[in-house]
Design goal:
Number of strands: 8
Radius of gyration: 17 Å
Number of helices: 10
Strand content: 15-25%
CATH topology: Rossmann fold
CATH class: Alpha Beta
Structural class: alpha/beta
Largest sheet: 8 strands, mixed
Oligomer: single chain
CATH architecture: 3-Layer(aba) Sandwich
CATH superfamily: Alpha/Beta hydrolase fold, catalytic domain
Shape: globular
Distance between the termini: 28 Å
């Protein structure tokens, strides 16, 4: 069931809500530049196991409104809070992939983990996606600036290039075309603005503020968010466990979807 939740600034956020009658809820936050459909292979399976699966499209992406401003992590985490309150979620699982993982980390600090029983970080872009003077990990600032520049010059080609680096395992041409279309559903300005947030935002304090059991899933061949960031998250977050995915890049939820679903369910039920 799909519907919209209106935020305080009147931006409408699209929400897909499967199995709303079930008590065990998982709120999925997708990564850049896709939308909630990235979790199709979780939504196919997990409701069969009795879970309520909720996917929200980040503002600027998918079916959500696409304002020109509001792509900082504070605003994005406030959108998460708006959805949580509108749906009355309590003791739910918050699962964020890539930029969605960064949003989840900010939510845990800014909103003190409101309603969250457990956290799942999937190739999360935290504590910093880019290398900094005192943080020699992640990708270069120049690489992100190139993505932003390419977004404004030729966004379809940028999306194709990004898709080529997303997966470690081979995907069919049909799947690659589908993945490409998800990126096209975003606005150009929001695509660039979120990429800019990777440069501006750091999440060191956010990770230290996480107080719930946390599962970290990260592909060891990830070219988008290097695996070393998952290792750093594990060291910084109390009561966390890191599960390396040996045959995945940035798309663990598809490349090893059966193992992903099994690990996720085992963590939730533990």
């Amino acid at each position: 069931m799909g519907y919209y939740v209106t935020m305080k600034d009147n931006v409408k956020i699209y929400v897909e809500d499967l199995n709303p009658q079930c008590k065990g809820a998982i709120l999925f936050l997708h990564g850049w530049p896709g939308n909630h459909n990235l979790f199709e292979y979780q939504f196919n399976k997990l409701p069969q196991l009795g879970f309520r699966c909720i996917g929200m499209d980040t503002r600027g992406f998918g079916k959500s409104d696409k304002p020109f401003y509001g792509y900082d992590y504070d605003t994005l985490s406030d959108d998460v809070r708006g959805v949580v309150e509108a749906l009355g979620l309590k003791n739910f699982i918050l699962a964020g992939h890539s930029t969605g993982g960064a949003m989840a980390a900010r939510y845990m600090k800014r909103h003190k983990g409101y309603g969250v029983a457990k956290l799942v970080l999937i190739a999360a872009a935290a504590p910093s996606l880019i290398k900094r003077p005192n943080f020699p990990y992640g990708v270069t600032k120049e690489a992100i600036l190139q993505i932003i520049d390419d977004t404004y010059k030729d966004r379809p080609q940028m999306l194709k290039n990004f898709g080529d680096s997303f997966f470690f395992q081979h995907v069919s041409q049909a799947f690659a075309d589908w993945f490409f279309q998800l990126g096209l559903e975003a606005a150009g300005w929001s695509t660039a603005a979120v990429a800019n947030s990777w440069i501006r935002e750091v999440l060191f304090d956010d990770l230290l503020a996480i107080h719930v059991p946390t599962l970290i899933i990260h592909g060891i061949h990830d070219q988008v968010v290097p695996f070393e960031l998952g290792q750093i998250q594990h060291r910084m977050i109390r009561n966390s466990q890191l599960v390396p995915f040996e045959f995945s890049g940035h798309g663990t939820f598809y490349e090893q979807k059966d193992q992903f679903n099994e690990v996720l369910v085992r963590f939730i039920e533990s």
